[in-house]
Amino acid sequence: MSEPASQEGSKPVQENGKEEKERKQEATEVKVPTESSQSVPSSSALDNSSNVPETATDEIKSQEIHLEEQTKASTDLIKDSDTNVSKNFVVRKPAKVIFNLDPDVLNSKLEQPWKKNFYKRVEARAQAMQQKIINKDNLKKELEKKAEKKFPRNNLAKEWFNTENMTLKTHAYLLDKLLPTLVPGVEKMLMQVEKKKLWAEADITTKFDPINHLGEYLMRNNPYYIKDSGMSGYQRVMRDVTEELKIHVPNTIGNRVSKMKESIKQKREERECINEVKIKVANIRKQALQEQFSEWILDPKGMIPLVVIQNVLHEFFQNPDFQLEACCKQLDIADSMGPRLNKMEFTEYISSYIADFKSETFEKLLKHLCHCADEFREIIKTDMRRQMFAELFLCCDRGKVGFLGRQRTLALLETFYDQSSKMLRSLLRNPRQWPFIEFEEIDLPEFWGDMDNQKHIYEDFDKVLLEINALLSEKHASKTQSKLLETPEDQHKHDEYTESTPPEQQRGTTAEQEPNRISTKEQEQDKESTGKKELYREIVTKQTHTGSTPEQGSSRELITEQRRHSDSVTEQGHSDSVTEQGPPQRVSSSKQGVHMESTAEQGRHRESIAAQGPHRGSISEQESHRESVTEQEPHKGSRAEQEPSGEIIPEKQQDIDSTLQSGRGSIFRESRKSRESASFEHTEILPQEKRTQEQIYEEELFVSPELQEEVPISRRKYHLSETTKKEVQKDPSCEKSQKIEGKSWSGELLTCNWNMDYIKCEEEEQANLLYSSSRFTDLHAIIRNIQSYKEVKGGSAFNGVSFNLLQFVQLLETFVGEDAPLSVSETLTSFFKRGYVETKEEKISGLEQIRHNASRVRRELLLEALFQKWDSDGSGFLDLNEVDELLYTYKEGMEKESMKKAKLHIQFPKPHPGQEVRMSSKQFQKYIQLVVSELRGNEDHVLESVVEFLMNSLERSPTENLRNCARRKWLYRIQHAAETSGVSLEPVYTETFKALTQDAESHGNKKISAHISLLEENRLLPDRGNVLLRNVASTLDDAPFVLNRVLYRDMKGISFTVVDEGKPIHVPQVQHHGNVFFWNNSINKSDQNGSFLALPLQDAYMRVFGVMAVDTLRDPQKINIFVPHEIRFYQGVANVFSTAYHYVHSREHILHVVITGIAWLCEITSDITTITTYFIEPGPKQDSDYVLRNMMVTRHLGLTKIHRNPPIIFRKTCIFRDFLFKCTDTSEVILASVCGENHIVIPLRERTGKALGVLDFNIGRNKMLLYREFKDLQKMIKVVQAACYEILGEISGEIKKNYILEIENVGEVQRAGILFFRIMLQELQESLQLLTSLDFVSLLLYDYHPSVEPTYLPDTKSQEVEANTKLVHDILLAVILFIHPELELSSDFGNWDKCKMYVNRHFVTNICAFDPTARHVEVNLKLIGEYIRDHSRIEVWKFGNSVIEYLYHWAHICLTLMELSKKTSSAIAPPLPSKTDSYVYAKMPKGSLPGKC
Predict the structure, then answer these.
(1) 891 conformational bin, left if phi > 0, alpha if psi -120 to 50, beta if neither
(2) Residue 1352 has pLDDT above 80, yes or no
(3) To 10 degrees, what angle do helices 939-953 and 840-870 make?
(4) What Cα–Cα distance (Å) separates residue 983 from each residue in 53, 293, 1176?
(5) Which H or E element spans position 418?
(6) Which residue, among 746, 720, 640, has the nearest Cα to 381 in the 3D structure?
(7) What distance in Å separates the CA atoms of residue 898 and residue 877, rounded to the nearest whole number?
(8) Residue 1014, CA atoms < 13 Å, CB-side half-sphere
(9) What pLDDT is recorded for position 592?
């Protein structure tokens, strides 16, 4: 090896000598042209003045060409020499010289000195020649000026200018070629004639011939041969005329040049005009922006944060209607509130982005700025409120433990709510309802069967909404009627009819007769919603005085009818008649067995209750009284009457359903009982405070116009017309106040980054304490890596027992709402300060809990760092025998017997071949803590001493430590790729192969190939085995031979041996093994040299789901065996890949469950506009905040759009939509209003209580959902959350998989598709088991016979009884047909008296044992569907019976599961898009789900 290396080293020396010789020759060759150029005399340039430029330029060009040839030849020689050197000796690279030099210095050094000299001389000569030419031109101009003075211009020659098209060319030719010589010749000829006086005497004979004289003149003065002696004034003017005339001759150079000049001039003028217009428009826009700046709330220095304006522009650019995504990419949003803008900077900053905007786009931007200015006012108000609540938390947390009791807080909120006035309660949210209480705190009968509208989150919401809709309909009808009444007679008849007709009938008839007009304009919708909200405020105010409460069932029915009426208007464009029905029959689940009445008796009982209480007044009286009040306030009524509409859009609110574990459910129920039994005598609101709370607030709310503008009950800011906005902008007296309810803004948003400032991270604090300890110096680097590789930083876990600061503030903000002024928050704060009193025991227990949490975190950090130090190869496990061997030497073996007792309390995994028991990190930590608990002394001190002993006993070389650090980084990247992949496995595969190849190159000096194969069920060729291995990913070189190939059991290979035994197999030399399958058949057997390693991929239950194979067949070395530390690292890679693989699939299954739940909800609700699903991911930088991924969006029709590359949402871009990050920070439900649209944001929680995702329900301009939809939303969220807990628990191995239905055994994807329905089916079965036999007796008594019914019942009552009877019979028959399908063929099928006999004591038991997906179940789905689908969700809700509610949902779910089981492959498919699609749409089949109406 040394000899060829020396030969190669001598060649560059020889070639360097050749290069120097060649360079010398080039230098001598180059000197020749420089000397020749210098020897040329300078006088040669002056021989002929006309040829000076041409000869000079020719000489220069020839010299430049010659020089270029010489330089090219020299550079080619240099390049050839360099390439030869690079081919022979690869190491020789002048990298240091090239990369360390500045480019200018490098170019100057590369230039030859002779070249620089030559260029200098040539440049001097060229400049001298140019100066001579300039001097000559100047001399000509001076001579022309002198000639003009000597011969003045004769304008008579201008008569030759004629642009007639017929003679234009001839004219121009004569003027250019002939006339300049002919005219002077004729002039001279005439002068001779005059001189000889020949023109006077014609008879005189003379030898003078004028023609010959003229010809002689022309020959003597031929311009081609004779030099011009000068031009007369006439000729000079003729020359100008000729030049001007040439311009008009087509297809000539002058003509083309003139046209080019004209077009250039025209374009320049147009450009100048456009620039002037742009400047004017820019000035107008800047003036408009300056006026708009005054609408913003400014800091004390009169400035606004830059990040706020950037968020405004970001939201505007993100609007797909404007197509301004390119502008959005240019925005670099600031990370803090530091940079500020004054008025001029504000104008210039926005103007820099809108220079190319059209006028319409700019107007929309101005509107957007106005909306955002109002929203920013609300943000500052919310920030002030949150600061109050934060100070309240710090005041109540007297022990500085960092949390407050949840039950005590909720009890105080309930007391405050009960002692508040009715008007204030209409703004507050009921703390006894969800989302303040969790689903585990609600009993199943109450959750699934309670249909009491009084339990809404807003007090009397359905009733108030009904009255608002009635008043709007009445006003619209009266206005339309007044237009139709043209004659006085019609008006008189109408007055008489009005006096004799009750208000209810007037509203009913007008609603049935008059068409309703729905406007699609945004301004009209804003006016309508403004009128509704002002009516809502009026009605709430009147209820505080009258206190009337109409019957709840009728209000629910009327709301439903109004809703159905609005739906028909939306679909058909005209109003349909709405048949009024009587109040529905409602049998409470808690009183069904005690009060059993007939239908008629129940109706008469409700009528008698409605007739009682005359002091309250009837509904019509209340409405007439409200109408009179409305007339006294013309500014409110006029706005409500500007756009009458029959479209009734009730406001809504969504619920969050979080299903926690069974153990926590008991804690919730016990804590709720303790909260209800607790007494708060010291929390009563004092009379003086009551007066402050009720009277002062009412005065401010309804008297002060400034506060009316601030309180967003009516949301005036979204409903102003354009003219009103312009008037407000022009009138300085109408500018908005810089104060919010009398309080100025400090200029800071203190709650903007609370998640980073106030979320106490115990791990970081304990890590800092460990860094300061000298006992664990060897673990400091590992602890730092653990902290840097942490998953998602930030966010609070919901535990159901206590609140931290963020959760407490958010709870109070949810309770107060956005409509209440700051005075209500101040009252609540003072109330809490007096009421929240902790006992001494509670303080001590809180401190103990803090100490326990700190100790637990410290232990976990120490043990995890010790595990990683011990596992230096990154295998992910330790050998129990090795751990015991070292552990028993603690204190020289004195504690050996005590340590052995710890093994009695832990269950180790099954031993591998060779009696090796492998412990994971969690098992190792648990084992060490059990060992420590058996030793004497303080557990914390004993644990630290044991960790210190083990740490010092482990001897690791610096090389092993560096290798361990690098491998931990590669393993972290695999898991990080899964967390930031947007639910995709491609980044996971990429990082896995990177880790394998980088480790092989760095620590093994090998070139490897790898592929991953997963197990699949063999359906096509079951004779070749029940399962097969499909290669799903591979390294790039092997992709053509390996990817998508299938390995069967009957084929040669060791992969199935790895699957069966669950242990890795290493083949050192594949050419001698004989049972290795080669995918690449083109390789010769002699070249099949290398090692092969197959590792099993196992899940949390140690079940093998695939194989990862690594080989060295492409390595050129002959000996390339995998050493033990490499095999252990590859086992660690397989372990981390399995974790990442199941992480991605768990998110995919959760998306599948959410899609199913959303489809179920959208089919039974109509007021939800959009539903957006987000997932939480770590930030792009190491220490950055987490981000959100917009996974999918569901529109109104239930069609879900799933993104393949989900957009990323950062916190800094969500100042106006921070409700998403509030939800993830606190893991609580958020009720927010943004840009006039109400949102209900619900977290999807992990098993630890932290949020893993968010469901954003946009309910449009409606304030809240009706109670029916409110409850249906709760059901959907509870089931989805329970499915998330089950999926995550199964993936992590915390719980075992529970297969309830037969269809769940088909596959994991199919199981995720039906998991929502299975959990809901279980919930309904548990609810049915809590019923008694008396609950079914009332249903069996329903039987309608028209001949038997009493005649005194009105038609509406009889129709209601008939409809209810049909509903009960159909639902019960459908359920009976599921359990007893043989009834269809029986003669008893048409007889109800015989069919109801199937409802016996075994009825509920049969329902709970029924599996709709079992293969032996055969029912008539078409017949059952006819019975169920004839009845809508609204009809079942109006009936008000919990048993029918349970059976209705149960029948629909069974029907859906049966239909899905018949087409599992097509109906239940993975919801994620493929590689080629940017998005995909998903939707559940409609036929099996319940309908809305």
Answers:
(1) left
(2) no
(3) 10
(4) 74, 43, 11
(5) helix 406-419
(6) 746
(7) 24
(8) 13
(9) 38
Helix (H) or strand (E) holding 219: helix 210-220
Q: What kind and span of H or E run contains 291?
A: helix 253-293
Query: DSSP for 1259-1308?
Result: -TT-S---HHHHHHHHHHHHHHHHHHHHHHHHHHTSS-----SGGGGS-H
Amino acid at 1137: F
pLDDT band at residue 755 using 50, 70 and 90 as cut-offs:
low
Q: What's the pLDDT at 1240?
A: 94
Which residues have C-beta within 8 Å of that of residue 665, sequence separation ≥ 6? Answer: 440
Calpha distance 770→783 (Å, rounded): 9
First vs last C-alpha separation in the chain: 89
Which segments of 1307-1431 does DSSP mark as H helices, in order?
A: 1308-1329, 1333-1340, 1355-1379, 1392-1395, 1403-1409, 1421-1429
pLDDT bin (cut points 50, 70, 90) of residue 34 is: very low
Residue 731 CA to residue 44 CA, distance in Å, equals 83
Residue 1076, token pair as written in the block: 């290795």
Residues 114 and 28: beta-carbon distance below 8 Å: no
Mean pLDDT across 284-292 = 92
For residues 1486 and 1488, what is the distance between their CA atoms, to the nearest angstrom?
6
pLDDT > 80? residue 1167:
yes
pLDDT at 127: 94
Alpha carbon distance 232, 217 (integer Å): 16
3-state secondary structure of 812: helix
- If DSSP codes are grouped into helix, strand and coil, which group holds residue 305? strand
φ/ψ of 1200, rounded to 5, equals: -105, 125
**Residue 899 pLDDT exceeds 60:** yes
User: Cα–Cα distance between 371 and 365 in angstroms, integer?
Assistant: 10
Neighbours of 1289 (CB within 10 A): 18
Q: Which residues pair with 1192 in a beta bridge?
A: 1173, 1202
Confidence of residue 228 (pLDDT cuts 50, 70, 90): low
The answer to whether 888 and 931 are in contact (CB under 8 A) is: no
pLDDT (0 to 100) of residue 259: 87
Decide if 283 contacts 347 (C-beta within 8 A).
Answer: no
User: Using CA atoms, how far apart are residues 1140 and 979, in angstroms rounded to an integer?
Assistant: 8
Q: What average pLDDT does the segment 726-731 reach?
A: 41
Using the predicted structure, report yes or no on whether residue 1100 has a pLDDT greater than 50: yes
Measured distance CA(649)–CA(626) in Å, rounded:
21
Of these ranges, 277-286, 517-526, 1387-1396, the one predicted with the greatest mean pLDDT is: 277-286
Contact 504, 620 (CB under 8 A): yes
d(CA 1106, CA 1010): 14
Strand 743-744 relative to strand 739-740: parallel, antiparallel, unpaired? antiparallel
Give the pLDDT score at 643.
Answer: 37
Query: Rounded CA gap, 637 and 633, in Å?
Result: 6
Question: At 762, is the pLDDT very low, low, confident or very high (cuts 50, 70, 90)?
Answer: confident
Between 461-484 and 634-641, two packed helices, what is the crossing angle to 10 degrees? Answer: 80
> pLDDT per residue over 1212-1248, tens digit each?
888 888 899 999 999 999 999 888 889 999 999 999 9
φ/ψ bin of 794: left (φ > 0), alpha (ψ from -120 to 50), beta (otherwise): left
> What does the pLDDT read at residue 1093?
93
Q: For residue 744, what is the enclosing H or E element?
A: strand 743-744
The span from the CA of 505 to the CA of 760, in Å, is: 62
* Residue 1017 phi, psi dihedral angles, 5° rounding: -75, 130
Tens digits of per-residue pLDDT, 1474-1490? 444 555 666 655 555 56
| For helices 762-771 and 780-788, angle between their N-to-C axes, nearest 10 degrees | 160
User: pLDDT value at position 705?
Assistant: 36
Q: What is the rounded radius of gyration, in angstroms, for the C-alpha atoms of the chain? A: 46
Is residue 1192 a contact partner of residue 1155, using CB atoms and an 8 Å limit? Answer: yes
